[in-house]
Amino acid sequence: MTGANPAQTAGPRDPPERGMTTDDQTPAEAPPAPMPPAGLALRPRGDSAVLELSGALTVHEVTQLQARLERLEHPPEAIDLSGLERIDTAGAWALLALERARAAEGTTLRLEGASAETTLLLDHVRRALPEPEEPPRRERGLTAMLERTGRSVAAGAAFLLDLLGYFGLFLARLGRTLRHPREFRMTALVAHAEEVGYRAVPIVGLMAFLIGVVLAFQGSAQLRQFGAEVFVVDLIAISVLRELGILLTAIIVAGRTASAFTAAIGSMKMREEIDAMRTLGLDPATVLFVPRILALLIMLPILGLIANVMGLFGGALMSWIELGISPSMFRTRLLEGTDVSHVVVGLVKAPVFALIIGVVGCHAGMQVQGNAESLGRMTSQAVVTAIFAVIVADALFSIFFAQVGL
Amino acid sequence: MSGPADTPEVVIRVRGLQNRFGRNIVHEGLDLDVYRGEILGIVGGSGTGKSVLLRSITGLQRPDAGRIEVLGVDILSGDERARATLDERWGVMFQDGALFSSLTVRENVEVPLRAIEGLDPRIRSQLADLKISMVGLPYLAGDSYPAELSGGMRKRAGLARALALDPEIVFLDEPTAGLDPIGAAAFDTLIRGLSRSMGLTVFLVTHDLDTLHAICDRVAVLAERRVLVEGGLRDMLAVDHPWVHEYFHGPRARAVFDVASPGGTGTKE
Questions:
Q1: Which residues of A touch B199 (CB under 8 A)?
Q2: What is the pLDDT of residues A55-71, one digit of tens each?
Q3: I need a surface site. Which of A35, A195, A319, A363 has the fewest CB within 10 A?
Q4: Domain boundaries, chain B
């Protein structure tokens, strides 16, 4: 090994190409050696059952070695390693795996002519040879499938119960805050209200405006066939005020805010800040949940109202351009044809959606474990759960309002 | 194994390295040689650029000036092809293992092996099992995901991945940080054993005086933006630079050196 060193140390300023060639030609006996130009050669010694290996036996050649050994008609009794120039742990492993397979069959394989370094390496690898263990078998079949189904149903029920528990916790802490208003942190509430409400105004407004435009455009195309263009006003008003305004706002807020709650609370959970709070006598539910959910509870109806106004504005603009319904005519038709109950029906849903989004976001944040993957997983799960729950709640509201005739 | 005895071959040569972040100069005129087969410990106070040095040598960070040669290949101006061959010849173990979280431990160790053309997938996974066993992990750990392992096991798995291709040099970033003393000692033994049996050169960034004492052949102290001193532990004890003196004569250091070799200075040649 040391024989090649002067060449290496003498020419550090060589251009890279030349540096590489000196490297390649380094004669190598020890495992750490540069890239080999030579491959592996197998040759039976005379007519005996001894196989002579020469060249290199490294991770590059093990596949070749196994394939060629399988092709041999008579398995060798011994392998002569004296011709080997290079061997690494992969090569040693291949030889030892062969030796072990032979031992399992009741025959032996001798490894002859190994140099001192190779022997050292072989011993080292032999000591480390893994003993395969069977992982515990997974149950398959009908029972296992039923078990999995049962478990996921039970887990779903436990999840809903847990959410209900968090809702109760929020109400309890809110009640305590009302009794002891001094403990309440107004600054936090205002900060969260700004974050979830004020900063969401542009996106919510734009979204609602575009929805109004789309409704007017699509509605006019259909209603024109019947000569009933003017009813586009009712179409826009009812669908925006009753359903779309608040539902789409809630969906956007769920995507924006539920994820933000989960990320904020989850990263505090990850860094043990929540535990630190508990040891300092601060209640995480009071400090973290109440201001967030309360802010959402206040801001979501306002955002819904903004969405309603922007939706009507977009619809009116499009009706004017597309159908020639002037803004004053739109206004008259709107006041005549649309009852104020539609607005009430729409906005009454807002607090419920706010509670759903807030509770889901905070709950998911508290489920974060100590690693970053779980933070990411819980964040996306919070968004999906919140949006799904909002839509389910909206469907239930529709059925309810249809039943009571509103 | 020819240790760094008669004519030691230099495998890493750093000359005039300069690294700066904005106005903060981390390295200036830093020179360092690492010899084949040795275990070199890099120590230094916080912010002296131990990790930056490791990242510069492994090409993760481009220094502002200087020359770095690893195994005769110029890291900074060498051509891509030559650089690429180095990936097979060195391995890096990051502080917390830096395992790919979406892969099992076995798949993690297989990642470097996938670069080998024509390697049978069955052999590849068995070779991964061998490396997992070589770093002292139980067989079934190969099926686990990194998040399911303890910190010490993740470090071992990271080492297994770094060793997957039988590299000539391994870079270890704080291998024993965050391990309990028993786990740390076991890791020291593991590194020393692997270094001896596979002829590894080990570049070790550490704060752990026990590790320095137990396994390092040489120590290089980073201070004042360069390698202030390098040599055996005994040489370190004789240095009278205030920081180095404090480091090797502080209460913790004294505890290590006194317990390990009562009456002596506890060095390795």
A1: 30-32, 117
A2: 888 888 888 888 888 88
A3: A35
A4: 100-166
